[in-house]
Amino acid sequence: MKKIRVLQIIPSGRQKSSMIFAHRQIDSLSQEHVESYKFYLRSRTSLRYLLMARAEAREIISIFQPDLIHAHYGTTTGLFATTLGTKPVVITFRGSDLAYPSEIGWSLRRMTGFLISQLGALFADGHICVSKHLTKRIWFKKDHRSIIPSGVDIEFFKPQEPISARRELGWKVNEAVILFHATPLNSKLKRLSLAQKVVSSLSRDGHSVRLEILNGNTSPEKIPLIMNASNVLLLLSRSEGSPNVVREALSCNLPVIATRVGDVEFWLKDLGNCLITKPNIDQIKIATIPLIADIKRCHGRILSPQFSRDKTALSLTNFYKEIVGDAV
Q1: pLDDT band at 99 (very low <50, low <70, confident <90, very high)
Q2: Rounded distance, CA 279 to CA 193, Å?
Q3: How many angstroms separate the Cα of 48 from the Cα of each of 53, 125, 305?
Q4: Residue 280 structural domain
Q5: For residue 316, is it within any domain?
Q6: Are 123 and 181 contained in the same domain?
Q7: Which of 30, 175, 217, 296 lies in the 20 to 30 Å Cα band around 86?
Q8: For residue 213, is pLDDT > 70?
């Protein structure tokens, strides 16, 4: 069987965890006879850099001879991929690249990013959206479109005994921990300040509780341990596509309290100790208190075959084959 060769274009960030889900997804493709070359787009705002990067990417294409190009984000990353020549281009839209400015706050930069995503979608040969609702936000329809959430390594994110996990981390055994994911760059979008107000209010009410923030600098290898040691994952975002952190938590049986964003409600429905809430301090407290009074788990692990990395790798490979047709 001939391998599919893919030039994978990844927007590069400064933080340790930047686009780690894309890296894991790409690495899992090798089991499906996909050979990848990772190209890092280190700036999306400097025209001078983008012109140099385009020349570098075109040289790599001439040597690597990919069957297609896959951009792992919209905005400039996606549009950049469509300028590289005659190879078919696939763009994965992840949510923030298609977020309406009214959801995340109006600014010229955000509006421009949204429009550039639409332009990339126009010129691309195929679209991948990480959740169904994002397909409705792309103005230009394509024959080749698929809904493929980023996969989770369910052997890495797996349940562990919470007390043992706390001791391994050096945490207090009797202190409740609310887990939250936000970086300095997206703290407003994630409503970090609301989470902090909730924890402060709980503390004033006499609960021994603290907020543990995954801020982008946490070692990825420690995150499953942290999830297993926590009482609950709190997600209060204004907008999301398909947040990986929710599926990673469910794979560890960590309860999740979240606002109704992206595809979160789909994953949480009918799971015990998981709830959808409004971004209101009192309602969040009502949902959270039973989970911090004692260490409880959910049954999210039963869903893991639906979002496993292996399933995603197969879906993505089949989509690649659909795009390149008889070329491989």
Answers
A1: confident
A2: 11
A3: 9, 26, 44
A4: 162-306
A5: yes
A6: no
A7: 30
A8: yes
